[in-house]
Automatic annotation (TrEMBL):
<dbReference type="Pfam" id="PF11715">
    <property type="entry name" value="Beta-prop_Nup120_160"/>
</dbReference>
<dbReference type="InterPro" id="IPR021717">
    <property type="entry name" value="Nucleoporin_Nup160"/>
</dbReference>
<feature type="domain" description="Nucleoporin nup120-like HEAT repeat">
    <location>
        <begin position="873"/>
        <end position="1041"/>
    </location>
</feature>
<dbReference type="InterPro" id="IPR048884">
    <property type="entry name" value="Nup120_helical"/>
</dbReference>
<feature type="domain" description="Nucleoporin Nup120/160 beta-propeller">
    <location>
        <begin position="85"/>
        <end position="595"/>
    </location>
</feature>
<dbReference type="GO" id="GO:0017056">
    <property type="term" value="F:structural constituent of nuclear pore"/>
</dbReference>
<dbReference type="InterPro" id="IPR059141">
    <property type="entry name" value="Beta-prop_Nup120_160"/>
</dbReference>
<dbReference type="InterPro" id="IPR056548">
    <property type="entry name" value="HEAT_Nup120"/>
</dbReference>
<keyword id="KW-0539">Nucleus</keyword>
<protein>
    <recommendedName>
        <fullName>Nucleoporin Nup120/160</fullName>
    </recommendedName>
</protein>
<dbReference type="Pfam" id="PF21486">
    <property type="entry name" value="NUP120_helical"/>
</dbReference>
<dbReference type="InterPro" id="IPR011047">
    <property type="entry name" value="Quinoprotein_ADH-like_sf"/>
</dbReference>
<feature type="domain" description="Nucleoporin Nup120 helical">
    <location>
        <begin position="652"/>
        <end position="776"/>
    </location>
</feature>
<keyword id="KW-0813">Transport</keyword>
<dbReference type="GO" id="GO:0005643">
    <property type="term" value="C:nuclear pore"/>
</dbReference>
<dbReference type="Pfam" id="PF23300">
    <property type="entry name" value="HEAT_Nup120"/>
</dbReference>
Length: 1208
C-alpha cells in the first residue's frame, strides 16, 4: 500500500464499485425515434425491451460495446430528494446512453428502490460533449438532452418511477421523448451542450456562435433561440475559416472562436465562455452584446505572436468554473476560475460587472501562478488536466478546495488542495506548491492485484505449497472474490481462452455447468493437451499453473480496460467526489488513520511531513504510533517470504483454540512454531530501531494498546430521519469493509510479530506483553470473522430494508420459491445490511463518510460481545439453510452451551445425527436449567415461540424439544433415545401429561425403527387406556407386517389377552387375500394355542377353511394341499381336548336355489351357525382326499351341475 515517492501526501482512496444490473430484468432498453438518415434506410421503430443479460459467448467486441464506456459522468439533482445521484455512460460506439441511480440511501418509508437501469438507444451516434442533464422543479423527473451526429436535439423526460417500477415505462416512447432540429443546426455543427436548467440550453457551434435556447414551461414544444457571436467579418476571417484559424475535431472544422466551455452567471444575466483561441468572453443575455474579454493568462498586452496563435485542444473537458462567492476587497459579485492548458495555470477572475470591458473583471492574484505541481506528483513532464472542481469553503474562499484529474499517458490521477484565495501571497504560494493531496487507486487496479497476497499468479510454487487449499481452489477464491471481477469479465475471458482449446480439439462440444465449473474444466482440458506422455504430479502442477496464468492474463487485460478513467464528478450536497471509470464507479473517501499511515510510510520515515499530513497526525503521540506501525510492518515484511503464509496459518489456528494454558505459554508456542527469533538478522534489528527512532526496550504497553485501538474513535451524533440503504450504498460499504479489514488485519499481524520477537529480548518490566498479545488476538479474531463474512457469498439472499423486501417478493414471484435468486450477496450484506443505519451518522462527514460509516457498521456484528455475535451469525446461517457455510463457520464457535446447541442443529441439518446427539446432550444440563435465558442468547427468533418454553424448564422438556427435532428429520432412533432420556429425568407425578406424550412419542419412534421391545414397554407404561389400546393395535399390525409374528407371540400381554385376540380376529375377518396376505389366521391360531384355547384355535382355522373353499382359485388344483393341511391342523387341535369338548361352533353356508353370487365381504351375511364335531371334520377330510384323488384320475368333473366355480 506504500505510496510512490514524490506522489504527494496520500489521504484518500478509491472504493471501486462494479457497475452491474441489480437483478435479472432490471435493465430496460428503449429504441428512440429518429428521422430517416438516408434515402434507403428505414426509420427505426420505437420500442421498449427488457434486456436479458447474456454474458456467455460474449466476445471482446461485444464486451466493449456493452460494458466499456467511452464517456460518462454523474449528475446530482437539486430539487428532489430521491433519486438524487445519477450515473450515466455512453456505450455501443456512442449510440447508447445508459442511466441509473447511484444513491447511497433513501428514506426508510420508501417502498421502492431506484434500482432499474435505463438504456436509451439512438439511431445515430451522440456527439462528444453533447449530453446534458437537468432537474425540473415542477416535475419529479430527470431531463436528458442529447445531440446526435444527425444534428437532432433529443429532450427526454424520465419520471423517477422509470427507475423504480418496470411498469412505469410501459407507455408510448413519444410521450416522453421529443425531438427537434434547431434552425442553426442546419448548416452548422454543435460542439458543446450545457443545460443550466430544464428550460435553458447553451449550445456552442463550430463557427464560434453560442446558441441560447429557452422555453417558458415544460409544455412548450418549440424552443426560443438567441445567438451570440462576434461580428468580425472580413476577408481574412473567411480565409482563416479554411486556413490556420480552424481546428479539426470529430469530423468538423471548429473556428478558433468556438466555445469549449459555456456557463451562465449566477444571476443569469451573462453567458461566459472559454474559446479555443485561449480567450475568456462574456455576453449579455438580454442585449446580446459582448462584455469582458481576457486572454486566459492575461498576456494579450504582450506582443507575442506565439501566444496569440495558441489554440486549446478541442477535446479538453473542463476549462472554466463559476464560483458564487460574493464580496472580497475588490467588490467581486462572483468569480470565474479558468484553466489554461498552455501553462497548466489557473486564474481566479473577480467579476464586478461583466459588461464593463475595462474595470468589470480583475485577476484576484496576478502575482501568483497557480500551477498544480503535477510534474512532481506524477513524475512526468507531459500531462494534461482533464477536469477540475472548485468547492467553496464554509466561509467563502477560506477552506476552499480544488479537485483535479490529471492524465499522463495511460495513467490518470486525482489530486486536491485546500486553500484560501484571500491568504497572503507567500502562504498561498506555499500551499499550492506543497499541500496537494493524492488519491490512491486502491487494491482493484492491476498493480493493486499484483500486490495482493492472495493472488496465486504472484506466488512462488514453494510458497504456494504451504497453503492448505489446492491450486484450483486458490484461483477460484481469488477470481470469485466478491466485487473483484464481474461475471461479464470472467465469461468473456473464458470465451477467448476456450477458442484456443476449440481450435486444438475440433468437434468438441461446449462445456456446460456453472461458470466456476466451466473455467476449471477448460483449464484442465488445456493442461491435458500440454501433456507429453506421462507426467508426475509436480510436472502436472506446473502445467496447470501455466494454464491458470494464461487465463488470468486474459482476465487482467479486460480488467485493465474496465479501469480506464473517464471523469471526475462532485456531489455538492454530500461534498464528496466521485470518479467514473469505463466500467466502475469509484467513491473517493478519506482513509482511516491506519491507511493514511501505510500510504505515507516514506514521508513518515523521513520525518518530512506536509501540511495536510501533519494535520492528520496532529499530536506527537499519533506520530509515534505511526512510527511503531510502519516499523512493525517493515519488520514483518523483511522476514522470509516462505514464513509469511506459514505464520499466518499458525496464528489463525491459535485464534480459536480453547486450550487451558497461560498467555505466556501460548506466546512461546507460537514463536517457537514460527521460529521467528532465528529468522531475524542483525540488519533487521538495526532497521527496526532506526524506523522506530528509539530502542525496542523503550516501547511501552500504552503505545501498543493505542496503536491497536487507532481506528476506534467515535464522534457525537444527532438523531436524523430514518434511512434505508440502497444497493450502491451497500456495495460501497462492503468494498470499504474489505479494504479496511485487510489493513487492520495486517497491522495486527505486524504488531504480533514484533511482540513475539520482543519477549526474547531485554524489555522493560512494565511492558505487559501478555496483555498486548491478548488484545491483538482479540482484534485478529474479530477481523477473521468479519473477513469471512465480507468474502463469503451465500445463495439464500435476504432483504436489507423495506424496498429490498419488495424486490425480493417480486423475484420470488418470478423465480419461484427456491429463494436462490440470481444475484450476488455476501453474508455480511445479508445479515447486517438492514442494520447499516442502526447508528446515526454525524453530519458533515464529507469524504470521511464511507470510512466512518463502515467502522460503525462493522461494529454492529459484535455489538453485544464476541460470542453473541458469532452465535447470531451461526443462527442466521442455519435459518437460511446455508448448511455448508454453517459447517465452515462453525470453527469460529466457542464451547459455550448455546454455541454447542447450534452445532448440534448444524450436524442434524447435514444428516450427522450422531454428532448432533452428542452436542445436544453436552449442552443439555445448562440449557435446561433456569440459569440459562434463551431471550438473552436468541435475538433472531431461531427457536420458534412454540418451542421456547422447553428451555430453562428442566431436562424433561429440553429432551422433549430435541425429540421433536429428530422426529422432523425422521431420525426416529435418535428421537427414541431422547424420549427415553426425557422419561428418565421425570420426577414425581406433576408431569403426567408430558409423560403421556413422551411415552406416545417413544412408542411411535420405536415402531418406526422396529424396536418392538421398546414399543411394547412404552405401550404398557402408558396410563391412558384409549392410547394404550390404539398403540396395541399399531404394535400388532406393524409386527405382523414386518414378519415379526414370532416375537409378537412372545410378549405376555398381561391383562390384554382378550384385546389381542379381538384385534387379531378383526384382522382375520378383514383380510382379503388368504394366499398372499399376512397369515393372520395362523397367527391367531398360534396365539390361542399358546394361551391353551384349543377350540378357539380350531375355530379360526375352520373359518379359514371355509374361506379357502369359497374364495381360493387353487381349490381345483390337485397339487394344492392347503385344504388338507387345514383339515389336519383342525383335527389335531381338537384331538388335544376331551371328547366331550371336541367340537366347535362354526358358520356354514346355506344351500340356495341357484348359484350364489358373492362379492367380497358378503360371505358372512349368508352363513348360519352350527356345531361341527371332530367326527364331522374327519369325514369332511376324507371326502376332500377322495375329491383330490378323483381329480387326479380324471374321473371328477371340474364343475358340478347347478354350481359355478367361485374365483376370487
Amino acid at each position: 500500500m506504500a505510496m510512490a515517492t514524490g506522489g504527494g501526501t496520500c489521504l484518500y482512496k478509491e472504493a471501486r464499485l462494479n457497475i452491474e444490473p441489480a437483478f435479472p430484468g432490471s435493465t430496460i432498453s428503449f429504441t428512440l425515434p429518429a428521422s430517416t438518415t438516408s434515402t434507403f434506410s428505414s426509420r427505426p421503430v420505437p420500442k421498449r425491451t427488457v434486456v436479458t443479460e447474456k454474458y456467455i459467448d460474449q466476445d471482446e467486441e461485444a464486451f466493449a460495446k456493452r460494458h466499456l464506456a467511452s464517456e460518462g459522468s454523474m449528475f446530482f439533482r437539486r430539487h428532489h430528494e430521491y433519486p438524487h445521484s445519477f450515473l450515466w455512460r455512453i456505450l455501443d460506439n456512442r449510440k447508447a446512453l445508459e442511466i441509473q441511480s447511484a444513491d447511497l440511501d433513501q428514506d426508510f418509508n420508501h417502498k421502492f428502490e431506484a434500482n432499474l437501469t435505463l438504456i436509451l438507444q439512438f439511431s445515430a451516434p451522440i456527439r462528444p460533449f453533447c449530453v446534458a442533464f437537468a432537474d425540473s422543479e415542477e416535475r419529479d423527473a430527470l431531463t436528458v438532452f442529447a445531440i446526435t451526429t444527425a444534428n437532432e436535439l433529443y429532450t427526454i423526460t424520465l419520471h423517477r418511477d422509470f427507475f423504480m417500477k418496470p411498469a412505469a415505462s410501459e407507455q408510448e416512447i413519444g410521450d416522453w421523448c421529443k425531438r427537434s432540429s434547431p434552425t442553426l443546426f442546419t448548416n452548422r455543427v454543435p460542439y458543446r451542450l450545457v443545460a443550466p436548467s430544464v428550460h435553458e440550453l447553451l449550445v456552442s457551434l463550430d463557427d464560434g456562435a453560442i446558441l441560447y435556447m429557452t422555453k417558458k414551461n415544460k409544455d412548450d414544444v418549440v424552443w426560443s433561440e438567441a445567438t451570440y457571436q462576434q461580428n468580425n467579418w472580413s476577408l481574412g476571417s473567411f480565409l482563416s475559416w479554411k486556413g490556420q484559424q480552424s481546428v479539426r475535431f470529430d469530423n468538423a472544422d471548429l473556428d478558433s472562436s468556438a466555445a469549449a466551455a459555456i456557463s451562465l452567471s449566477p444571476d443569469n444575466k451573462h453567458i461566459f465562455s472559454v474559446c479555443l483561441n485561449h480567450r475568456l468572453r462574456a455576453w449579455n443575455v438580454t442585449s446580446g452584446k459582448p462584455g469582458v474579454q481576457r486572454d486566459l493568462l492575461d498576456e494579450n498586452h504582450r506582443a507575442n505572436e506565439k501566444a496569440a496563435s495558441y489554440f486549446i485542444g478541442p477535446s479538453q473537458s473542463t476549462l472554466m468554473a463559476i464560483v458564487n462567492i460574493p464580496g472580497g476587497v475588490d467588490g467581486a459579485l462572483y468569480y470565474v476560475v479558468t484553466y489554461s492548458p498552455r501553462k497548466h495555470q489557473f486564474k481566479f477572475w473577480g467579476i464586478r460587472d461583466a459588461d464593463d470591458t475595462n474595470l468589470g473583471i480583475y485577476d484576484a492574484k496576478p502575482e501568483l501562478s497557480f500551477i498544480p505541481p503535477v510534474d512532481d506528483l506524477m513524475n512526468t513532464t507531459v500531462w494534461t488536466l482533464e477536469e477540475f472542481f472548485i468547492i467553496p469553503g464554509p466561509a467563502g474562499w477560506r477552506g476552499a478546495e480544488l479537485w483535479i484529474r490529471a492524465r499522463s499517458g495511460p495513467s490518470s490521477k486525482v489530486y486536491s488542495v485546500r486553500f484560501d484565495l484571500t491568504d497572503e501571497s507567500a502562504r498561498l504560494e506555499h500551499t499550492w506548491e506543497n499541500d496537494w493531496i493524492s488519491v490512491d487507486s486502491g487494491p482493484l487496479t492491476v498493480d493493486g492485484l499484483k500486490e495482493d497476497p492472495a493472488n496465486p499468479s504472484e506466488l512462488d510454487m514453494e510458497v504456494s505449497e504451504l497453503y492448505e487449499v489446492g491450486l484450483t481452489e486458490q484461483w477460484l477464491d481469488f477470481l470469485f472474490y466478491p466485487g473483484r471481477f464481474t461475471v461479464a469479465t470472467l465469461e468473456t475471458a473464458l470465451l477467448i481462452f476456450r477458442r484456443g482449446l476449440d481450435r486444438s480439439r475440433s468437434g468438441r462440444g461446449a462445456v456446460k455447468g456453472s461458470l466456476k465449473e466451466r473455467i476449471c474444466t477448460t483449464v484442465a482440458n488445456f493442461a491435458s493437451l500440454k501433456q507429453n506422455g506421462t507426467m508426475d504430479s509436480d510436472e502436472y502442477e506446473n502445467v496447470m499453473t501455466a494454464q491458470w496464468q494464461a487465463f488470468y492474463g486474459l482476465v487482467k487485460d479486460l480488467h485493465k480496460r474496465r479501469g480506464e478513467s473517464l471523469s471526475l464528478a462532485f456531489d455538492y450536497e454530500l461534498e464528496m467526489p466521485w470518479l467514473v471509470l469505463s466500467d466502475y464507479l469509484s467513491a473517493i473517501r478519506k482513509g482511516s488513520h491506519s491507511e493514511i499511515i501505510a500510504l505515507n510510510a516514506p514521508a513518515l520515515s523521513s520525518g518530512h511531513l506536509s501540511g495536510p499530513l501533519r494535520k492528520s497526525l496532529a499530536s506527537q503521540e499519533s506520530r509515534n504510533i505511526s512510527k511503531l506501525l510502519n516499523a512493525a510492518s517493515s519488520f514483518r515484511r523483511n522476514l522470509p517470504s516462505s514464513l509469511q503464509p506459514q505464520f499466518r496459518h499458525q496464528v489463525e489456528s491459535e485464534l480459536f483454540q480453547n486450550r487451558s494454558m497461560s498467555v505466556l505459554d501460548r506466546m512461546e508456542i507460537l514463536e517457537q512454531n514460527a521460529d521467528l527469533f532465528r529468522q531475524v538478522s542483525e540488519d533487521d534489528v538495526s532497521l527496526l530501531v532506526e524506523e522506530l527512532g528509539t530502542d525496542v526496550k523503550d516501547l511501552t504497553t500504552e503505545m501498543f494498546l493505542r496503536a491497536i485501538a487507532l481506528n476506534q474513535e467515535t464522534e457525537p451524533t444527532r438523531p436524523s430521519s430514518k434511512k434505508q440503504i440502497t444497493r450502491f450504498g451497500l456495495s460501497a460499504l462492503v468494498r470499504v469493509s474489505q479494504e479496511t479489514l485487510d489493513t487492520h488485519y495486517n497491522d495486527m499481524l505486524d504488531l504480533l510479530v514484533l511482540v513475539l520477537f520482543m519477549i526474547e529480548e531485554d524489555i522493560s518490566e512494565d511492558f505487559d506483553a501478555p496483555d498486548i498479545f491478548t488484545e491483538i488476538m482479540n482484534q485478529l479474531k474479530d477481523c477473521t470473522i468479519l473477513t469471512w463474512l465480507v468474502s463469503t457469498v451465500w445463495s439464500h439472499q435476504a432483504s436489507t430494508g423495506p424496498s429490498s423486501e419488495v424486490m425480493m417478493t417480486s423475484l420470488h414471484e418470478t423465480f419461484g420459491s427456491s429463494r436462490k435468486f440470481p444475484i450476488t450477496q455476501t453474508v455480511l450484506e445479508g445479515i447486517f445490511g438492514h442494520r447499516s443505519f442502526n447508528t446515526p451518522l454525524p453530519r458533515g462527514l464529507k469524504t470521511r463518510l464511507f470510512t466512518y460509516w463502515t467502522r460503525e457498521w462493522l461494529s454492529e456484528v459484535f455489538k453485544e460481545n464476541f460470542d453473541s455475535g458469532v452465535e447470531e451469525i451461526m443462527g442466521v446461517l442455519l435459518l437460511q439453510k446455508e448448511y455448508t457455510l454453517a459447517l465452515d463457520f462453525s470453527r469460529f464457535l466457542s464451547e459455550g452451551n448455546w454455541a454447542t446447541y447450534l452445532k448440534g442443529r448444524m450436524h442434524m441439518a447435514l444428516g450427522e445425527n450422531t454428532l448432533a446427539s452428542v452436542c445436544f446432550q453436552k449442552a443439555a444440563y445448562n440449557l435446561a436449567l433456569g440459569l440459562f435465558n434463551l431471550d438473552d442468547n436468541d435475538d433472531i427468533a431461531f427457536i420458534p415461540d412454540t418451542e421456547r418454553v422447553f428451555f430453562s424448564e428442566g431436562l424433561p422438556k429440553y429432551y422433549y424439544h430435541i425429540l421433536g427435532l429428530f422426529e422432523k428429520t425422521k431420525a426416529f432412533s435418535f428421537a427414541a433415545d431422547f424420549a427415553r432420556l426425557s422419561l428418565g429425568t421425570l420426577r414425581g407425578k406433576e408431569d403426567e401429561d408430558l409423560k403421556k406424550e413422551l411415552l406416545e412419542r417413544l412408542f411411535s419412534a420405536s415402531i418406526a425403527t422396529s424396536r418392538f421391545d421398546d414399543a411394547y414397554s412404552a405401550m404398557f407404561r402408558q396410563t391412558d387406556s384409549a392410547l394404550k389400546l390404539s398403540n396395541l393395535q399399531r404394535l400388532i399390525t406393524s409386527m405382523i407386517q414386518q414378519s415379526r409374528a414370532e416375537s409378537l407371540l412372545k410378549f405376555p400381554f398381561i391383562g390384554f389377552t382378550e384385546n389381542v385376540d379381538s384385534i387379531l380376529s378383526s384382522l382375520c375377518h378383514n383380510s382379503l387375500n388368504l394366499t398372499s396376505g399376512p397369515p393372520y389366521h395362523h397367527i391367531l391360531y398360534s396365539f390361542r394355542i399358546s394361551r391353551g384355547n384349543f377350540r378357539g384355535a380350531a375355530s379360526i382355522l375352520y373359518e379359514r377353511l371355509q374361506r379357502l373353499k369359497t374364495t381360493s382359485t387353487q381349490i381345483h388344483n390337485p397339487a394344492d394341499e392347503s385344504l388338507t393341511q387345514c383339515y389336519l391342523m383342525i383335527i389335531n387341535t381338537l384331538s388335544s381336548v376331551t371328547k366331550e369338548e371336541a367340537y366347535i361352533l362354526a358358520e356354514k353356508r346355506i344351500d340356495e336355489v341357484g348359484p350364489p353370487h358373492w362379492g367380497i365381504g358378503q360371505a358372512r351375511n349368508i352363513l348360519k351357525r352350527q356345531i361341527v364335531t371332530l367326527d364331522t371334520l374327519r369325514k369332511e377330510y376324507q371326502a376332500e382326499l377322495d375329491r383330490v384323488a378323483a381329480i387326479e384320475s380324471g374321473q371328477f368333473p371340474f364343475v358340478e351341475a347347478g354350481d359355478e366355480m367361485d374365483i376370487l
